[in-house]
Design a protein that fits this description.
heterodimer; A: 557 residues; alpha/beta; Rossmann fold; FAD/NAD(P)-binding domain; 4 domains; five-stranded parallel β-sheet; 15 helices; 28 strands; B: 365 residues; 3 domains; 16 helices; 7 strands; globular
């Protein structure tokens, strides 16, 4: 066995608190170690060259890289091995940054710890065997769940790229909340026009199947070959799809949850969405006094919505402007905590609204009391430091975005996660903002957190592009970490069958033993841990590897 | 009680929700938001200010950053209590509670005197099957106006076949107001004494007469007492609904119901008292323009029962009575002894009668 050990300084990140020289010297004494080096940045090009050259020069068959966490640069280092025709699963990453140098300041202790971590990698890697990555065929079709603007833009993109698209919408028609908007800021076109144009284009495409009033009822399978069951008004329909774009949008905040706002107790207290729908039917005096309240259902710890909904400041400005334009002599007062008119042009819009005569008062209204004369708002002007009680003819609550009502149900069906606010969680907030933890399932639009119309459209397109990149290859590599059953040891108790979440374990009635369907296995190891006869092992994580790694950590150095 | 976490205080964004919700702001020099800001910067606070707070809880219930401003006030008071810079009346109430276990300093031996007004025996809680304790507490035990409340509730329970017992002289003040005055040491003593008695007699359920007692027993005596705590209206309402308690009389009056802060906004008991009133034959139930979650505080809580603040302003009780008159009410009903006490004076002046719920029910029994 010929092992190469490469220890990274990570600039000062590791070198500052770990004696890297002492480490690289130390491992030279092991007979199976052909080369032991330390280097400022192993991930840099010269660092990579050092590794490929060493593989060639020493004929290495094991590579240990002691550096950052394995999730970082994983594929990069695997590719180095592939280039030199070494099986990439003979690579061992040891984290001496996150697990060591970043944790403590004592150089001696850190170096001792790093030594044990690397040793454990060395012992474990000795048991490694080359693993074959399996190639499976990928179905060039996509399921889009949710027919709002982000779903529509994802569907359009994918269908134009030649993918077969199934678009599923729970409601009676496509378009989501945007359809309700009279004028979408900043373009000022009607929401209905936007979605109808998209819908028209989509309906004209032969490779698109649209299902309205339809819900996803079951979902199984694996990347490239997911099986979705749809409950359509015409009955159940099955679809095999390569991947999914989830774009189920948001639920408008229900102000009943905040009883001090008096919503529902008087028709003169409305939400921004109610105002859109009411249009000309509003019964207001010639010189109406209108209050507009920001941050309703946003930035509020009391109701579990600590986040900013991002859209409601612009909506509040739009509402104020609409009233001012319709009633020249109106008195419009906007009550805010902060005005976050963040999209491009938003600050200027805020300025315009001020110029039009809308007054802005920094106050989070304490309570709203409907009286026969008018709606009384009680609050404190925090800039004057004075409490006020003012009467209005109309109160508009600029409501925020709550997570979609079906988010929990959908998360369970697709086996993906929600964040702390119950929106869908992305795989990485910066590096993989469209992906979920499940391969081939992407999230788009406001179901992954508050977004405006423009952002939702872009987000839908971006997720679709990512999915297209996966599907267009036509094939996919499946991780070789799958469970294998030793039929001689299997007692046929079938406990593993119940433990398996991927439904990959099948029982052979004739032989009375189980076997694993490789394509479906996710490599989670649940069956492995459940088996009372130790008949199941997980490729790449067999017991002997783990045993030896543990003993390396525990043995006296 | 844990000190209100300093980090939460630092998260205050000075939005003014607290001041906008506060029953004292505007008419008195009291401004909650400003006090929280001063706390953030450790600035000096005028020592008269913290005593305006009625501990109605609106600020803490609505604060978008969960800063718990009312707890910040309690901390400011604690400091003043520690330094002895407190109003004489407050000082007296604390001393009385320390010695006689009630803020009025009445003899502890007389805590169960009210039972003499009944024509049946009330057992000690240890002698009951259900181990259901009627927690009477100070104002109902001693105040001549409020002593009718335990008498009435006992009669109603007896009539409806609801078994209960009392602790008599062994009961100590619940400590709700004491904690809010800022005397946490004394509060802990009272809590320990009461908990020891509950444990000794195997109390399984507590029925409180005052929403203030119910609040502290339910929320601040610790999570693991295993004792169910309710307000008496929460027991009577279902008894009336199921027919266990029948109300044969008639009460032909226009009654307006005032939500006590500690029963309503702080503990979400809004419907039971209303259901009880609606069940009274002949009674017409009215609503204040500010009711339920936005009910206006009567200013009887947070130690305000024991002393008068310096400022002169139109008291909320008066505002309340004027609203009741405008709504055409003849009687203001409420379910809290403090509310009864504060509303009664301005109501009498306007020719209105204030009744505690149990009084109306007893009249139709």
């Amino acid at each position: 066995m010929k092992t190469g050990i490469f220890i990274c300084h990570c600039g000062h990140n590791i070198k500052h608190t770990v004696d890297v020289k002492r480490l690289s010297e130390y491992f030279k004494k092991y007979p199976q170690v052909s080369v032991s080096e330390d280097y400022p940045f192993v991930c840099s090009e010269p660092g990579q060259d050092m590794i490929t050259e060493s593989i060639e020069k020493h004929g290495l068959d094991r590579v240990i890289i002691a550096s950052c966490a394995p999730s970082l640069h994983g594929e990069l280092f695997k590719d180095l091995l592939r280039k030199k025709d070494v099986n990439p699963f003979l690579l061992r990453r040891v984290s001496i940054r996150e697990h060591c140098s970043w944790v403590g300041d004592d150089i001696d202790q850190n170096t001792e710890k790093a030594k044990r971590l690397i040793l454990s990698g060395l012992y474990g890697a000795a048991h490694y065997v080359p693993l074959e990555e399996k190639q499976v065929e990928v179905n060039k079709s996509a399921l889009i769940i949710g027919g709002g603007v982000s779903g529509l833009s994802a569907a359009l993109f994918l269908s134009k790229m030649g993918m077969h698209v199934y678009l599923v919408e729970m409601g009676k028609e496509l378009g989501g909340h945007v359809r309700e908007l009279k004028s979408v800021w900043p373009s000022r076109v009607s929401g209905a026009d936007i979605v109808e144009e998209m819908e028209k284009e989509l309906r004209a495409r032969p490779n698109v199947e649209i299902f309205t009033s339809t819900k996803l009822s079951n979902f199984e399978g694996f990347f490239g070959n997911y099986e979705a069951t749809l409950n359509t008004p015409e009955g159940q329909k099955k679809a095999t799809v390569g991947g999914v774009v989830l774009s189920i949008g948001f639920s408008p905040f229900d102000p009943h949850i905040k009883p001090e706002l008096g919503y529902g107790r008087d028709p003169r207290i409305v939400t921004t969405l109610d105002l859109e729908k009411a249009g000309d039917s509003l019964d207001l005096p010639d010189k109406p006094r209108v209050a507009v309240l920001h941050c309703i259902g946003s930035r509020d710890e009391q109701i579990g919505r600590p986040y900013c909904s991002r859209i409601c400041c612009i909506n509040a400005l739009r509402a104020s402007e609409a009233i001012k334009e319709k009633y020249n002599d109106s008195y419009v007062e906007s009550f805010y905590m902060d005005v976050r008119a963040h999209p491009r042009g938003g600050e200027e819009f805020f300025e315009d609204t001020q110029e039009k005569g809308v007054l802005f008062t920094r106050a989070n209204i304490g309570e709203i009391i409907p009286t026969p004369q008018g709606i009384v708002l009680r609050g404190e002007d925090t800039l004057f430091g004075e409490t006020f009680e003012r009467e209005f003819d109309l109160v508009v609550l600029s409501i925020g975005m709550s997570p979609p009502e079906t988010s929990k149900e959908m998360a369970t069906l697709l086996k993906i996660s929600l964040d702390k606010d119950k929106f869908f969680l992305e795989a990485h907030i910066k590096l993989r903002p469209f992906d979920t933890a499940v391969k081939g399932i992407f999230i788009a639009g406001s179901c992954s957190g508050p977004k405006d119309v423009e952002e939702s459209i872009n987000h839908g397109r971006a997720s679709a592009l990512k999915l297209y990149g996966f599907l267009n290859l036509g094939y996919a590599f499946v991780d070789p970490f799958i469970s294998i059953v030793d039929p001689k040891r299997c007692s046929g108790c079938r406990m593993c069958e119940q433990a398996c979440v991927a439904k990959a374990i099948k029982f052979d009635e004739e032989k009375r033993v189980v076997h694993v369907e490789e394509a479906a296995c996710m490599g989670c190891g649940l069956c492995n841990a459940t088996c009372p006869s130790s008949a199941i092992s997980l490729k790449g994580y067999v017991d002997s590897i783990i045993d030896d790694e543990i003993s390396a950590l525990l043995e006296a150095i | 009680m844990a000190e209100q976490s300093a980090t939460r205080v630092l998260t205050c964004i000075q939005c003014g929700k607290c001041t906008g919700s506060c029953p004292e702001s505007g008419k008195t020099p009291f401004n909650v938001r400003m006090l929280v800001r001063k706390k953030q910067f450790q600035s000096v606070v005028d020592e008269a200010l913290p005593w305006y707070c009625t501990s109605c809880g609106a600020c803490t219930i609505r604060c978008p950053r969960d800063v718990k401003p009312s707890e910040v006030i309690i901390e400011l008071r604690s400091k003043l209590v520690e330094d002895g810079d407190i109003p004489v009346a407050i000082q007296k109430a604390l001393e009385n509670t320390f010695v006689q276990k009630n803020p009025w300093g009445r003899s502890r031996n007389k805590r169960a005197d009210w039972v003499q007004k009944l024509d049946f025996e009330v057992p000690h809680v240890s002698e009951t099957q259900s181990k259901r304790l009627l927690f009477v507490c100070c104002i109902q035990a001693y105040d001549p106006r409020c002593m009718v409340i335990p008498v009435n509730v006992a009669r109603l329970f007896q009539a409806g076949g609801m078994e209960f017992g009392i602790l008599g002289e062994e009961e100590a003040c619940c400590g709700n107001e004491i904690r809010r005055i800022g005397e946490s040491g004394l509060f802990e003593e009272l809590q320990e004494e009461n908990l020891a008695a509950f444990q000794e007699y195997g109390v399984k359920e507590i029925v409180a007469l005052s929403p203030h007692c119910m609040n502290v027993l339910k929320k601040e005596y610790g999570d693991n007492t295993g004792i169910k705590v309710s307000h008496y209206t929460e027991l009577l309402a279902p008894m009336i609904k199921s027919g266990a308690l029948s109300l044969p009389g008639s009460f032909e009056k226009k009654v307006i119901y005032h939500d006590p802060c500690f029963l309503g906004k702080q503990n979400n008991v809004f419907d039971e008292p209303r259901d009880m009133l609606k069940a009274v034959p002949g009674l017409e139930l009215l609503e204040f323009s500010r009711s339920r979650e936005v009910s206006l505080c009567c200013e009887g809580g947070g130690g305000r029962m024991f002393f008068e603040v310096e400022a002169t302003y139109q008291r909320n009780a008066e505002v309340r009575v004027l609203d009741a008159v405008e709504k055409g009410a003849e009687i203001i009903a409420t379910a809290c002894p403090f509310c009864v006490m504060t509303l009664e004076d301005p109501a009498t002046e306007k020719g209105l009668v204030v009744k505690e719920l149990s009084e109306i029910l007893t009249e139709v029994l």
